[in-house]
Design brief:
The structure is a single chain. By secondary structure, the chain is an all-alpha fold. It contains 9 helices and no strands. The longest helix is centred in the N-terminal third of the chain and has 27 residues. The radius of gyration is 19 Å and the shape is globular. The N terminus is likely disordered.
């Protein structure tokens, strides 16, 4: 067994985030294979792929909420929060720029990193609500099913999530309903820290140490894995010609 991580971090949470990263990389590799015509799959309509994406995003955002609870519990101030936030927001801008070059018709204007950047601020402001976060999260998840208007269908407004049709884009993670998942993760983290702190702070089996290490570098991995995968596939196709 490994000893618990430093204050403000949880090896168990890092390993869970690392699992999400591996799952995401496998999903994206299959997506890239499909993009280059090496497999034939309906990623935009097949429930098998749609539900996988939903599960991966859910796991990511729940981990983000749990991590925010840990950070606040460890006394994270706004200056440190904004430094981390700037990294996420900067990477979101890079994702938009890179996707515009590769997918000019379906570039990413509000993907998962854009969503996390906005939702982290909202979740941080809502953190003092504590138990009420469960209800607020439920409202956030339910609202897009109850309210929709064509006004929110443009690239300038679809980030909120109250759309009448899904946008044509390579990635889309609107504030609603996904803010609800982050709020539930935050609420769960606050509950665990108050009542079951050992569940987060406990030691991690050595076999899971690589996942924890990956989880600690999740943003770097996220930014690098697709260029590496796409580059490798392009090299393979070039050699195969």
């Amino acid at each position: 067994m490994r000893t618990p991580g430093p204050p403000g971090r949880s090896d168990r949470l890092d390993a869970l985030r690392g699992l999400a990263m591996v799952w995401m990389a496998v999903f994206h590799f299959c997506y890239d294979l499909n993009h280059f015509g090496l497999i034939r799959q309906a990623f935009r309509s097949d429930p098998f792929w749609l539900w996988q994406r939903t599960a991966i995003v859910t796991l990511f955002l729940a981990c983000a909420g749990l991590a925010l609870a840990l950070a606040l519990h460890a006394g994270q101030g706004w200056p440190r929060f904004w430094r981390r936030w700037a990294q996420v927001a900067g990477c979101a801008v890079l994702v938009s720029a890179g996707s515009a070059l590769m997918f000019p018709r379906s570039w990413i204007s509000f993907g998962i990193l854009h969503g996390i950047a906005v939702m982290l601020v909202l979740a941080r402001l809502a953190a003092p609500l504590r138990g009420w976060l469960w209800l607020l999260g439920l409202v956030a998840i339910a609202l897009p099913r109850l309210v929709a208007d064509p006004f929110f269908d443009s690239r300038w407004t679809n980030w909120l999530g109250l759309v009448t049709r899904k946008p044509v884009t390579e990635d889309w993670a609107p504030v609603l309903p996904w803010l609800g998942v982050m709020l539930w993760g935050l609420a769960a983290g606050q509950w665990l820290l108050a009542r079951r702190p050992g569940w987060l702070a406990g030691a991690l089996p050595r076999a899971l140490a690589p996942l924890a290490a990956l989880g600690r570098w999740s943003l770097s991995f996220y930014m690098l894995h697709q260029p590496v995968l796409i580059g490798a596939l392009m090299l393979y196709l070039w050699i195969r010609r």
